[in-house]
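ok so for the tutorial part 2 we go from a plain amino acid sequence to predicted structure tokens. step 1 is just haveing the sequence, like this:
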Amino acid sequence: MLKDKLNNILENHYQESRITDISTNKNISMNNIVYLDNDAITLIRRIRRNDLWADNIDNIYIHNMADVILKIKSIKSSSGGIACQEKHGEKIRKNLNTGIPWNKGLKGNYPYTPWSKGLTKSDNASLLKLSNDRLNEGNPFFGKTHSSISKEQQSMSLRAKILSGEFTPNSNNRNTHWTSYFDNKKFRSSWEAIYFSLHQTELYESLRIEYIYECKPHIYIVDFVNHHTKVATEIKPAELLGNKRESLKLLALEEWCSNNGYVTKIITQDDIEQMSTQVDPGRFDNNTQRKIRKLHETYIKNRNR
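step 2 — the prediction. this is what the tokens look like for a chain of 305 residues:
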């Protein structure tokens, strides 16, 4: 019986909790407390997983330690990202910011063609019906909001994926807006593209470090790292170096470098202007080529003063 199996698991994991009644998978009693629907399904799944969940059933359901749930989900999320990084790390790093999914070709028939490709609700009755069915009360999220716990769980999961390299935010650089390419490899800024063209053995955005800003944890994605020379490189305008948040990032980077035997290198516009004289503009996109010419002109003008 399911009841006996669940209680055996609880006993094997040294838990005091016991299942007292099971009507269906959506109606279960534990410690004489009834759990219905999704709560019942969640309870059964947690007991049967035989891992961190089963070891903490008492803490969650007797002692009401909500922080335990957050910690377990954080650990599970991190471990999943770490396992993925260990198995596919090279492919993930190679495809970062190229627009190509890291898992392309691993399974299935990629790319998939959605049935609605090229169609709109104005010329397709099925799409129009789907759209109308999701209006107002038809929207499954209508009138609902995420709880503070749910938001924190989502935030923790996202940070774990960023830290592991599984996910890289598609945030825009304020100057280039993701329009810089070198040999068809995408960069957040023309400066990064120029730097990489002269340092192609370095890894782009593979080093991720945690730091605290305004009492909240964040992930700092370092521009470049060379694990052979043990140098971590950050490319920034000089005027940003005094910014509070940027200062905290650099402090976190310097601490990481100190703890791991690396050194920190900061590249500013003066360095990029000099590098612009050494690159092959033809290997960049048109927008970056124009910026390279301007940087080159500025460098020559400043040198002749």
